[in-house]
């Protein structure tokens, strides 16, 4: 109390100093400048990442193009060797003036070119003069042409396999040449050559979306799906290369002009950026290169960098807009925070006065809380006592039910015991007379009677024990059978007729097994009490499932219930029995047990006479071990 008085007398706190107003606009400008700097530094890295990804995708196209060219060349290089082994070619070289043989060889070479899809097949003598050719019928016939200046001729004449790529001096078509020596005995008397055109490669590249070029070791672009790049160079042509080109008439020297290109490596990725100034403006490409080693070619794929640049710009734009949005949100939040601080500063004085008033009221609340805690403790003790009393009433109800069944149970035990005694005496007599089979049968009957009494004792023990408070899945069919087993002696004594058809499958409900068994025993016992004096007593049990609920009906053929009895049937200490025959707690206990299971217990009269009590419970999933079975 002294502390409270001191707190009340304490002078109010001085008002807080008004905070200096801070403006978010300068900070926002600095943040925007920093964002622009970060984006400017990040853009080249983002663009390079997209370029590398594009190059990785194009690698498959490049590998496919190189594989196709390698396959075409490898399929063709053995053909001149096979053709050179034809005896008719060596014979024509020995007899070049044989007018009967020459037409046959020409036609044979033409048919070979047609069947193998070759551009040209031709036979040259040791001087390089073409004496027979597949093109002998055409205006561009090789017959009479000299090709001694071609490297493939000199290589084959020296005994090797000649190969060369060039622009045809007669046909004007780019092609690849293979040549093999024609050997007559031990002497090379001529050369047979085949040519394949390379235009088909370019046709397959047109749909790739990129530009594919083939360069030789002199940096001359020999193949490309861009016709304006044919025979252009993507690097300096060595002086020795120019001399070889001129001597072998490989390309037209006048067309060997360099492309206005600049090349730069894309970091350590292995790719290059090639920038070419053309008539349509500056074009930038991502280039990667593969090899066709047998032909001495470098195959490169050039993909425009514009899509990767657009992707990078899009990503940076989205990131920039997102960052700008975040900055704007931060600026708004900052502005609101400043206003909140000003509002808090204005409220500081009022808050100090309110705190003083709160301290005064706190003392009253502490006293009220202490009194409330005492009342809560009293109520908690009362509730615990109530639960204890209810549990004792439940146990008392079960003992009362056992008391009602005691006479029937006595009869149920005395009858088997008398039978056991008689069977035992008979067994002894049979043993004395040496009739062991009959003695064994009597002993088996004694065992059956003992099992019967043990079963009744087990059900009585389970029914009489104190139930647990917890609930869980309970097999309803088994509970009903246990309750009927307990009530069997009383039912038999009363001569009651029971109408009950157990379901084929078990029905699982939420509850407690012992307490639910007690409810069923109470309802059957009440039904028997209601039909006392009526012959014969009839009790019907019906178990059904409706949706997610289980319904158990207990029906009797008694006089039914009056309106007052229906209204008070579940009230404690209400009974319609004669004085001294019941406490009026059975239905009340059963009602509370079912309610604890989140169920309902209702009573009604049947149109045909008698009463019906309905237990309604929630269905439950069977335990895991039962579900597994």
Topology:
Blueprint: H1 2-9, H2 24-76, H3 79-84, H4 87-94, H5 101-115, E1 120-125, E2 130-133, H6 151-157, E3 162-167, E4 174-184, E5 187-197, H7 199-205, E6 211-215, E7 221-224, H8 239-248, E8 261-265, E9 272-278, E10 281-292, E11 297-304, H9 306-432, H10 436-464, E12 472-475, H11 476-494, E13 497-500, E14 508-511, H12 513-530, E15 538-546, E16 549-556, H13 563-568, H14 586-596, E17 600-605, E18 611-618, H15 624-628
Parallel strand pairs: 13-15
Antiparallel strand pairs: 1-2, 1-5, 3-4, 4-5, 6-7, 6-11, 8-9, 9-10, 10-11, 12-14, 15-16, 16-18, 17-18
Helix pairs in contact: 2-9, 9-10, 9-11, 9-12, 10-11, 11-12, 12-14
Catalytic activity: ATP + protein L-histidine = ADP + protein N-phospho-L-histidine
Domain Histidine kinase: 408-621
GO molecular function, one term: ATP binding
Characterize the structure shown.
The chain crosses the membrane at residues 312-334. Pfam families: HATPase_c (PF02518), HisKA (PF00512). The chain has 629 residues and is α+β, with helices and mostly antiparallel strands. Helices cover 52% and strands 19% of the residues. The chain has helices spanning 2-9, 24-76, 79-84, 87-94, 101-115, 151-157, 199-205, 239-248, 306-432, 436-464, 476-494, 513-530, 563-568, 586-596, 624-628; strands spanning 120-125, 130-133, 162-167, 174-184, 187-197, 211-215, 221-224, 261-265, 272-278, 281-292, 297-304, 472-475, 497-500, 508-511, 538-546, 549-556, 600-605, 611-618. The strands form four sheets. A six-stranded antiparallel β-sheet has the order 7-6-11-10-9-8. Residues 1-10 have low confidence and may be disordered.
